[in-house]
Design the sequence.
């Protein structure tokens, strides 16, 4: 027999309905009584800020799910997962034993939603330039975007081209600045220490002359500020890059671009990372296309990722740089797989032997075809069975 609180909840529910901005969804079904619920959650920074449910079922499942949502709203994910049937029963003034199974449905739906909730961040990198990492990154984003929300991040800030490969028109989002020193020369004793300590040769000091500063050489390390005995060096800033946004094919693009002649790309990448951290909960997948090589901006981009794809080609240079990239992944403790591009040109055994040595899987082999080259050249998204298979193998 239902309690008065259960009946009141059934007649006057608070949480039934759709939630259009939900970023975690799931359902649960009881085959014995045909009860079915769909749970929709809005999660921000690991906290459930809103929740709604849709239902087909008896008064028991409606009232228990409605009060369950009251119990999890405002809680962290970890706290919400600790809510028990006893908590639901207490909130309803008791729960008939033959309806305890009703309270299991929302709890099961929450567990499933958490499995579906977490945004997956995948890095796409290549040791040497020209292996096709941007081709793979854009094709992967395009394939996923057919039924998922995808953010594509072009972190190859020295040479961004994802927008060209997908024909996306970019719009300026923000300017990226870097700190640089500024002198109050009225207090300068012309000691020359600021120039002596500058490893980038951005400061030239000549005895009995004021220091000469070349801002394009400066990386903002701050050694000169610390070294100056008169403390007459403060901070100014210079523009070193831009962040752009765009959208097409259900893909949101975030693209960084380093200003020509500037030496420190990782500052622009770090600016991208800040935006990714702020926006990632809105997406199912974030695909980060790094620069080629193993330098600081590559590491900065990969820091955000939980899995990486190493794109290579079946050549001696491809093998050499792939080995270095795998070693970087190992140092970063980053799970990875290999994508062999232009797989039918060269000696694939080189890459197979390396994959075996490091116990990594070759997740896709993309052929060198006229169709792929034509789409690449014309700024059209690439579709190929190898990319479809890659998505399946990644269980995305």
Sequence:
């Amino acid at each position: 027999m239902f309690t008065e609180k259960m009946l009141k909840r059934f007649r006057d529910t608070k949480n039934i309905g759709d939630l259009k901005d939900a970023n975690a969804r799931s359902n649960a079904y009881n085959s014995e009584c045909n009860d079915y619920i769909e749970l929709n959650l809005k999660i921000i920074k690991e906290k459930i800020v809103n929740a709604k449910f849709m239902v087909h079922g008896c008064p028991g499942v409606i009232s228990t799910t409605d009060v369950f949502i009251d119990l999890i709203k405002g809680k962290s994910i970890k706290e919400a997962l600790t809510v028990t049937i006893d908590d639901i029963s207490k909130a309803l003034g008791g729960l008939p034993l033959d309806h305890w199974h009703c309270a299991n449905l929302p709890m099961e739906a929450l567990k499933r939603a958490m499995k579906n909730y977490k945004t997956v961040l995948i890095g796409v990198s290549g040791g040497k330039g020209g292996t096709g990492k941007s081709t793979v990154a854009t094709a992967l984003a395009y394939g996923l975007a057919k039924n998922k929300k995808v953010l594509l991040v072009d972190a190859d800030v020295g040479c961004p081209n994802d927008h060209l490969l997908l024909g996306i028109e970019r719009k300026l989002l923000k300017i990226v600045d870097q700190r640089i020193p500024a002198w109050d020369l009225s207090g300068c004793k012309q000691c020359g220490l600021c120039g002596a300590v500058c490893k980038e040769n951005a400061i030239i000091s000549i005895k009995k002359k004021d220091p000469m500063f070349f801002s394009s050489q400066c990386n903002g390390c701050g050694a000169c500020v610390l070294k100056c005995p008169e403390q007459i060096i403060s901070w100014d800033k210079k523009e070193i890059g831009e962040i752009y946004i765009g959208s097409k094919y259900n893909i949101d693009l975030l693209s960084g671009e380093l200003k020509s002649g500037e030496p420190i790309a990782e500052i622009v990448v770090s600016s991208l990372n800040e935006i990714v951290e702020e926006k990632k909960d809105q997406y199912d997948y974030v695909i980060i296309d790094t620069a080629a090589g193993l330098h600081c901006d590559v590491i900065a981009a990969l820091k955000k990722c939980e899995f990486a794809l190493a794109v290579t080609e079946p050549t001696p240079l491809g093998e050499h740089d792939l080995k270095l990239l795998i070693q970087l992944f190992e140092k970063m403790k980053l799970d990875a797989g290999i994508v062999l591009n232009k797989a039918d040109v060269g000696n694939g055994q080189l890459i197979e032997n390396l994959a075996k040595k490091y116990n990594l899987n070759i997740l896709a082999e993309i052929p060198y075809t006229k169709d792929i080259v034509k789409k690449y050249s014309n700024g059209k998204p690439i579709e190929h069975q190898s990319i479809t298979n890659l998505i399946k193998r990644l269980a995305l």
In short: Residues 42 and 50 are 5 Å apart (CA to CA).
